[in-house]
Amino acid sequence: MSKKNQGNPKTHEDLKGFDISINEFGEIISSYSVDKLNGFLNDNVEDKKLKDRDDLNFKED
Fold first, then answer.
1. Residue 18's closest CA among 8, 31, 27?
2. What is the pTM (predicted TM-score) of this model?
């Protein structure tokens, strides 16, 4: 049995208005472009697989 979500989830300030769904053909439909989502993820999420590599140059904040 599936559980229906009530209301909108909490989101980051930069993602206000973001909506994603899957249509009847299995295609992902999003209100944001893939480039905009990738930019947000690059800025806000640490990549656990890459954090200990010495050969990559990341900008330090």
1. 31
2. 0.55
